[in-house]
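Tutorial, part two.
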Amino acid sequence: MLGKLFILAFFGLLMAFTLQVFLHMGVNKRVYNHRPGHCEEVKGIKHGSEDIVLIESLGIAFISSGLFYMYERDSDVRGKIFSYNFSETEIKADEVPIRGFARLESFRPHGLSFIEAGGVLRLFVINHEYPSFTHSVEIFRYNKQRKELIFEKTVKDEKFIRPNDLVAISADSFILSNDGYSQTSFGNVFEALSGGRYGSIVYFDGQNSHYIQESSVSPNGVILDRTRKFLLVSHINNKLIAVYKLGEGFKSLELVQEVPLDTLADNMFIDNTGAVWLGAHPIPKDAAGHMASSDDLTQYGPSQILRIDFSNDWKNWEITEIYSDDGRQLSASSIAVYHKDQILMGSVFRQLVHCKISDKKVLRARN
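Running the prediction step on this input gives:
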């Protein structure tokens, strides 16, 4: 009798888990295309635009391309940094030359951040070296006249376990997210389905690293708000973003708010009004299939761009879906940057897409 009850309980739990996985992977979801205006693919990029940072003072964006993330890529994929000038009429991206960097052949960029201080612009880049999949942060200085990046230094640390994104604090300090622990695609799938706290958030002070969240569920994108007092984190497998108050010396986090999204939240951008722009993956099963075969053009993942307007105390918010696509125009959106009625939208492994906003209502929050 007890044996039968045990078997029934086991199969009941198995069915409940299977149903939970099906719902989490979006088996029952659909995506319908809509745009905020005219949108077109940006010329010059074809192997990904995973992260984008806007340099408001210059009216340009830097874009990371050629991501290597546990899955193999085609042999012609190379890690590169591109720039996009919002003031130019031609919709194209230009490769940024990198000087003085001896490991350019193995360079595979991921998350980006920057800081401007004393007239110097520095770009921080997470690098997953190919083919070893070892991790570091590369810091470059941008020469505005020659429009090139000059290598300054490499930062490595045992706490950079599987870094995804970062946010610069000073010329040599930053906050970094590890989105998991495993270094293999199989282990990554296990972590995602189990929902375990395999990720972490690290503060590097220029000399030493400190865990500010040692155990966390898939922290992905990280960004500071305009006051630089709050850290926003997209917990991708939990389908939410969290707002944390930063402690003294950037060495602790206090949870302020969690925003459920029912979509896989990737990287974030905060515009000059304080609104959060977010690239997301609305159907996880399609995103996973695309990422496992990233250079197979018959496989693509749907895209979703959200804009979140918060109240000053973070207690209330309004979410607007700015853009939605079945993956044919933009496959697996990872980031969206807004500048002067234009949106630049990145993807994990494929296109970069530019939209000119014609419907200004999408920019006005009602709260």
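The domain at 37-363 is CATH 2.120.10.30 (Neuraminidase). In part three we will examine how such features are distributed along the chain.
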